Amino acid sequence: xxxxxGILRRALRLPxxxxxxxxxxxDVAVPMPDGAVLRxxxxxxxxxxxxxVVIVRTPYGRAGWVGVVFGRLVAExxxxxxxxxVRGTADSQGELSPFDEADDGAATVxxxxxxxxxxxxxxxxxxxxxxxxxxxxxxxxxxxLRAMGTLVTASSFRDQTYAGGAFSLDNALSWxxxxxxxxxxxxxxxxxxxxxxxxLADALDALPxxxxxxxxxxxxxxxxxxxxxxxxxxxxxxxRRDYTRGVADVARADVAxxxxxxxxxxxxxxxxxxxxxxxxxxxxxxxxxGPWVHASAxxxxxxxxxxxxxxxxxxxxTHGSGGVAAATTEEAPVTVTLSGDGGTRHLTDxxxxxxTDRTWYLRADHSLSVQPPPDRTAGAxxxxxxxxxxxxxxxxxxxxxxxxxxxxxxxxxxxxxxxxDVAVFTSDVLAEDVVALGPASATxxxxxxxxxxxxxxxxxxxxxxxxxxxxxxxxxxxGPGAPATASDGTRAATVELWPAGHRFAAxxxxxxxxxxxxxxxxxxxxxxxxPLGEATTLVRQPREVLHDAAHPTAVTLAVEPRH
Length: 563
Prior knowledge:
The protein is an alpha/beta fold. The chain has helices spanning 3-12, 64-75, 102-113, 129-141, 158-161, 169-183, 185-204, 212-217, 222-229, 236-240, 247-252, 268-280, 297-316, 324-331, 414-417; strands at residues 22-31, 37-45, 51-58, 80-85, 118-127, 145-151, 256-264, 286-293, 334-337, 344-347, 356-362, 367-369, 386-388, 423-427, 434-448, 453-462, 468-478, 491-504, 509-515, 543-548, 551-552, 554-559. Strands 11, 12, 13, 14, 15, 16, 17, 18, 19, 20, 21 and 22 form a twelve-stranded mixed sheet that branches. A ten-stranded mixed sheet has the order 1-2-4-3-5-6-7-8-9-10, with helices on both faces. A hairpin with a 5-residue loop joins strand 16 (453-462) and strand 17 (468-478). Helix 3 (102-113) crosses helix 4 (129-141) and helix 6 packs antiparallel against helix 7.
């Protein structure tokens, strides 16, 4: 064990290593069926000549944090680890085709199982893209796969790419820029890093969207163009990259699945959908969710600890060093740590079986109330709503929330809520704690001149000083007939928000924001029906948000029962 890994082990609060000595075979070549050669580093604990193997497949290179955390630290716990660079990255041959990992994953599984140092048992581990590669190879691994450590990830990235039917521009272009920087080599990488976020910020504002890759990287990037072109739900491009069908296979193979998510993580809704699919198929995965953003150090540390404990149980056939904690995990396989200093809950399932829905309604005086709006329209003119403009030439900005890079997570909303294009509705001071724990959604009744628009909804926590901080949010893109227009010219938009785990403390207030977007997290809506990558004409999109008895705009949170 090196000094660096010793310090890292303590920082991550990992159990003591089984062996301080690890050997590394670098740049091992594995031929793929089409002739391309992929390379990996093999980490082997001292004294282990045959045993289970953990496969880590990554597009981010094998050196640095990937090799240390998911290679060496895991090997120090007595497991052999293959850390492989996916096709077209680092020194693996071929061309990177993002998320298309099933064939290479299957070939890698076959190769590893055929090695004399593998005893036929496999594990997988890693966050984000490294989690997608696990779902991609799982069907080929079959019952050889004993444990998976899937951290801040999902079995398909399509829905994250088009969250709410819009386009997750910041995530898509930031990742594209990162991958081009990694591919530039040491010399080119320095130049790109110096230009950094400034160049990317300009690219995120570029129109049409199809020019964004050129602005961010200096050239065309095929996969970015594919994402703009292949947004249809029935796209064959995404069907090839969808591994949700393998979730049931994992359940039938009795794989010990560990899932680590964050309340402000970009993949949380779809990771929880994977969890639900596993449960429906009879599996009992371990789910841990906490107040983390994507790939944050505390979140990854928690996920690594959980995965290593699961590996120990799966490969040793014991509860390992878990003791009482392992028994607790079996009885309550879901552990969530709430934001808002809400503590930790150990649950039998997700969503919490005893959670109940509570709805807050928007009022004309910009308040939020648990009482529905009174009927004031009978025999009178239409009760007025709240006017909310959206100008795509000056788009409502994204402030915090589930974003891949930059200023993600909980953020002060003061400046955003002062903008005229953000409508704000606030509850009375809470007499007691309200713990949001489960799904969240909103229904927004509106009247608009254009059928092409986005609706963004955000729930915030306002402390006694008046500081507003975002908790959960979501966006939905509307088009002609979706949703349908009622006889009075109104439309009712359903907005699915990120699942929530947050304590609104007594003395605080709930706040709801309603606006027309969150740029560049979601690409601005031009207000036209132009194809996703082509629009250059920008149309203002005024709309009236309604909140009368006939049009009860509201937000609903699953809340923990009062104790």
